[in-house]
Amino acid sequence: MCLILFAHAYHPEFQLIIAANRDEFYSRPTQVLSYWDDVPSVLAGRDLKNMGTWLGVTKNGRIAAITNYRDPSFLNPDAPSRGLLVSDFLTGDKPPKAYLEYIEKTGQHYNAFNLLVGQWPDLYYASNRGKDIQKIRPGLYGLSNDLLDTPWPKITKGKKLFKALLDREEKLDPEAVFNILGDRAYAPDSDLPHTGVGEEWERILSPLFITSMSYGTRCSSIVLFEKTGRITFLERTFEVINQQPVEQKTVKYVLDLDVG
Predict the structure, then answer these.
(1) Which phi and psi (to 5°) does residue 143 adopt?
(2) Cα distances (Å, whole numbers) of residue 229 to 111, 120, 122
(3) Domains in the chain: how many in total?
(4) Angle at which helices 153-168 and 174-181 pack, to 10 degrees?
(5) Which H or E run contains 160?
(6) pLDDT digits (tens, 9 = 90+) for 5-63
(7) Which range of residues forms the domain containing residue 82?
């Protein structure tokens, strides 16, 4: 996952809204959003190379998502898959803060990451490039390939569009959220971050929705946690045809939690 916009206890109808794009090499095998055969309580897409995931929920209200922290100078090709940090939380039973405290002790074995984990209605953030576990307070946030709310162009633009939509729409239209996630405009070169991948790739990676010959946005996801305990999870996948991403299909799941 390379872009997560999320609103926590911000909208009158929803405890949590997540809008996210997963960016990955087009050749990497992937299972679309579904309940996992081996762990039926988990609803998520799946990386079929290492069997982790980038974003998922469970029937008892657990949620987790991850982004890579971009730093090619410290990339270890033998490190375990960061997607396992998400799947391990979803399939486990540690409370969110306790899980992140455990990851504080083991996270140095992974390449750099940002991790969101929660159990309805709470949400926490941590990074193995950051200092402290952070309990997410009510508000609107953006996460890409640096620490939480680092003002990269895609985060600044994405949060502005996301806030404008949430502030004017009492009944949220998922298509309007997908439209934000589909923004392919490049940032001005003068605003690009410098993460060590070179200016051409900084430019390619600057839109909310990424396209290139070999790497780009594979799916867009929306997760809506209503205050009633209902979760709606939508995933829109894309296939590259003639060097252009074409919408393949959209799947939708709705599940109800027992929130007492």
Answers:
(1) -140, 125
(2) 34, 8, 13
(3) 1
(4) 170
(5) helix 153-168
(6) 999 999 999 999 999 999 999 999 999 999 999 999 999 999 999 999 999 999 999 99
(7) 3-256
Give 233's contacts (C-beta < 8 A, 6+ positions apart). 33, 43, 57, 221, 222, 223, 224, 252, 253, 254, 255
CA distances from 172 to 166, 178, 225, 231 (A): 7, 11, 12, 14
Residues 6+ apart with CB under 8 A from 165: 172, 176, 177, 180
Q: What is the pLDDT of residues 87-130, one digit of tens each?
A: 999 999 999 999 999 999 999 999 999 999 999 999 999 999 99
Q: Which residue pairs, CB below 8 angstroms and at least 24 apart, start in 172-175?
A: 172/11, 172/13, 172/14, 172/17, 172/224, 174/222, 174/224, 174/232, 174/234
Please tell me the distance from the alpha carbon of residue 42 to that of residue 27, in angstroms, as a whole number: 25
Supply φ then ψ for residue 178, to 5 degrees.
Answer: -60, -35
- The CATH number of residue 77's host domain is 3.60.60.10
Place of tokens 């003068």: 190
Specify whether the CB–CB gap between 38 and 31 falls below 8 A: no
Q: Enter the pTM of the model.
A: 0.96
User: Which single residue is written with the structure tokens 């307070």?
Assistant: 137
Helix (H) or strand (E) segment spanning residue 154:
helix 153-168
